[in-house]
Amino acid sequence: MPALQLVWYKRDLRIADHAPLAGALDAGPVVGVYVHETAQHHAADRDVRHERVLRDALDELSAAWQSRGGHLIELHGALPEAFDALHRVLRYSAIWAHEETWNALSYARDRRVRAWARHAGVTMHELPSNGVVRRLASRDGWAETWQQRMRSRVVPAPEQIGSPDAATTSAALTALPADMRTTTGAIIVPPWSDWQRGGEARGHELLQSFLSARGQDYRRAMSSPNEAPSACSRISVALAFGSLSVRQAYQAARQRARELRDDTRIRHDGDAAQWSQSLVSFASRLHWHCHFVQKLEDEPRLETTHYAPVFDGLRPAQPDTEQLRAWRDGQTGYPLVDACMRSLRVTGWLTFRMRAMVMSFASYHLWLDWRHTGPVLARWFTDYEPGIHWTQCQMQSGTTGINTIRIYNPYKQAEEHDAAGAFVRRWVPELSALSDADLVRPEQTPLMMQQMMGCVVGRDYPLPIVHHETAYAFARDRMHAIKLAAQRSGSAQRVYDRHGSRRTPLDARTR
């Protein structure tokens, strides 16, 4: 009889386009396992909203395995100890998994699991996931590799999954330590926004509704805090938890582009051009998704340290706790910043421009180190992806040495992206009675008008925590000086050689 194969699920919670599952099925009977890791559960970047999505995805994944005759086991504890205990009762011969780029805890865990497997005589099969390349020697040619992977065949979902019979699996689980066993539904978490739910079916549903209808105005509306929630794809949660692969999304976009090209009814009207632009932008962002994750794969220390030592000591090691609290709680006196932070805390999502703005404000206006503000956002982003998150934290803080320094003006952003004040009024209701113009800088509203409207700035809503023009000038001068130092020292060139984008070659058209 072929030996038992173990499919180890991590952030790849799907049944389709899952190469490790397909490889394991070719080798013999399989059992799937997901381990709820104690260290990850209590990590600084973890929140109950992540547990909500995880529970959604695992429930659906377990049902998919069961409907095909297979068994997905959930365990609780540490790795590799959980695998060792399971190996004692099931005697599997190999572990099949995707390569994963996650946080420092998962990086250390993977190394421990590989060492245990060698010692236990268990074969480890780790297969590429999406466009990230392990042990990449050079960024030269990376974009072409990404393109090849995205256009390669999507692995179909298996029709049947051959697992040991239920009695055998049940008996094996009973033999495990009681605190290691867990059952579906054991994690109790509150319901969440429907946009932010997990699972493979939900991921595909969002992708299809985006490509068929919602995404037509994507390119124009993606920056608007009012329009982006519906105009953006909203598949970021599915991508972060692996309920949907980047390749599936990319190939679906290409298929949609072909359909639009062949549809004579819309080929020559404005809708076709608008769709084409949006699909190009969408495909480009799928490319950037892997580009940023690749940075953390190549240099895992970027989660906690600067790209180059020249940036060490740039900002205080200990944050101003009052400023950090005001930023976190949406009490800075900058209405759009406050609206974004309050919205994020409730919904778990912001459009990219608003994410960049709140990080820029914390880094430049408040001069807070990204290592203090980044964990706040990591916990609140339901679609938290470390490779994107930590590299963007550094990018929006100006500590990469190679990217343009962008100090967002929150007043200008409000005028451009929330001119009618709908977003601010929704999330900062104490300002809702003010006129559209006064919503941008409410502290400049005449006092009599503030009193008439029932919102006195400094009493009912905070005064600006810092003076914009002063903070902007200080940050601009300081950052340009240190960026010049990075260039002169050669550290900027070293960062570019290792992480710089060589080419952004992709669009959603077919050739």
Short description:
With 511 residues, the chain is mostly helical. It is 52% helix and 6% strand.
How does this structure look, described?
By secondary structure, this protein is mainly α. The protein contains 24 helices and five strands. The chain has helices spanning 19-27, 38-41, 48-67, 81-90, 104-120, 142-151, 166-174, 200-212, 218-221, 228-231, 236-241, 246-262, 270-298, 321-329, 335-347, 352-365, 370-380, 386-397, 410-417, 422-427, 436-440, 447-453, 468-489, 491-499, and strands spanning 5-9, 30-37, 72-77, 94-98, 123-127. It has a five-stranded parallel β-sheet with strand order 3-2-1-4-5, sandwiched between helices. Strand 4 (94-98), helix 5 (104-120) and strand 5 (123-127) form a beta-alpha-beta unit. Helix 16 (352-365) packs across helix 18 and helix 17 (370-380) crosses helix 18. The longest helix has 29 residues, at 270-298. The two termini are 47 Å apart.
